[in-house]
């Protein structure tokens, strides 16, 4: 049920211009994890 709400809201979100500090922190950490993973794969 909660995923239905998220799926309905997500197409309307502009994640790069979200004013929520907590969301921006979350997004920053997700991007750092992706970058760390990408960097680690390049060293293989």
What would you say about this model in short?
The protein is mainly alpha-helical and about 45 residues long.
Structural write-up:
The chain is an all-alpha fold. It has one domain (2-42). The chain is built from two helices and no strands.
Give me the strand/helix succession: HH
* Assembly state of the chains shown: single chain
Average pLDDT reading? 91
Rg result: 14 Å
Helix content: 55-70%
Total count of strands: 0
Q: Between the first and last Cα atoms, what is the distance in angstroms?
A: 40 Å
Q: Which structural class do you get from the secondary structure elements?
A: mainly alpha
Q: What is the strand and helix layout of this fold?
A:
Blueprint: H1 2-9, H2 21-42
List keywords for this structure.
44 residues; mainly alpha; elongated
